[in-house]
Amino acid sequence: MNRTPLLFLNVFVIATCGLIYELLAGTLSSYVLGDSVTQFSIIIGVYLFAMGVGSYLSSFIEKRIAEKFIDVEFAVAVLGGFSAPLLFFAFANLSYFSIVLYGIVFGIGTLVGLEIPLLMRILKDELDFKDLISRVLAFDYIGALVASLLFPLFLVPRLGLARTSLLFGILNAAVGIWGTWLLLPLIKQNVTILRVKGFIIIALLATAFVKADRLTSLAEDGLFADNIIYAKSSAYQRIIVTKGKTGYSLFLNGNLQFNSFDEYRYHEALVHPAFAAFGANPKRILVLGGGDGLALREILKYPSIENVTLVDLDPEMTGISKHVSALGELNKHSFDNPKVSVINADAFVWLDDNETEPFDVAIVDFPDPNNFALGKLYTTRFYNLLKQKLKPGSTVAVQTTSPLIAQKSFWCIIKTLEAAGFTVKPYQTTVPSFGVWGYALAKLQPFEAPTKLPENIELKFLNTDTMPSLFAFTADTSLPDEEIEINRLDNQALVRYYEDEWRRFE
User: Are residues 235 and 280 in the same domain?
Assistant: First the structure.
């Protein structure tokens, strides 16, 4: 049997598994630690450095290369396969999570760095050096490409992080077992021991794969104070709903989005000042983000509304109230209203690609800009695209993070809106779950901040007395003296501000 093609197939599998483990660690660290730009960068750097260390260490292996290769495969299977469940548990139970995270990344990188050199030494007697290097590197890079495509498009949304790592651990162990037949002439020790070891590892990983939901739930129970009643990994994020003494809470990638106890304060402040500033009876409304339907609930209180277009990237998010009845009751089943049209798309792309009639009011309710994918939704380019969907007298309201905790971030958004041609009235309120929270009210023409609310709208928080106070800022939330950068696609200044400011509270 010509084993050379099969050994190159091993190179492909090794490269695929290795990159999957790297992506898993980067994604999971950004889920639980936030600060995704820095985390991913450090993860990649540590992993690549560790591969270099592994490649160097391979030079010290001089005997029983085939057996050492199989042992390394089994070690990668165990460490890589159990990496995601282990990191979930470590974050929930250990104060030194970062040490465990980078230790696991370094360990996997070192083992992966050992694999390819050992395999190349096994192949060196069967191919010319030129063909050996070119083919090994080709299969290595192809494997990386396959992993980078499978990970976001199929593995995470279909299997989740824990099952993905366990599946590829099984694949690594299978490569090791297959190697006991493929490299049999080179193996000096009792091959049965190697095979038994491999099958035990596969059995353990397979058991964990079947019980993955339970393992993840046990880990997440340690991360959240309240009971988890819904958990789902979509193609874009990890969605968690908890129930506690104060009510229901929604978390995206571990970040609190609302608590049912006080969310009305946030959403009333987001929606109603914009309607007050518009003045006349609004008919066409655009909502960007807001997939929980709570802003929709406030918008649909206005009888003049004819249609509402909601654009949110994640269909799992816009459909969550169908799975959690309490959330459906909380948003008054707003997604079932015939006036509402839901579009699951990237808001940036949708604004750029679609021609629509202009809207009277736009409500922009995106998550905070903690990564570049979200940061682009706060740039001058995005706001210029939004302008094309508005009438001259239209009003826009944007959630703008906390002016107290993230003062520079807040004013960066305000300055960016102004740089895009909007007249902006910043405002803020207090939401107990978040503290002081900020918003921007914007129009394409000069206007005065509204002091009165529309009549005959049922509200729990806002009233005519409190409305003017929304636009008053204290010294520690006002525009700082230092120059604030404009957030553009080519600098993402906002993401840098946000990471620096919120990191202080981690």
Answer: no
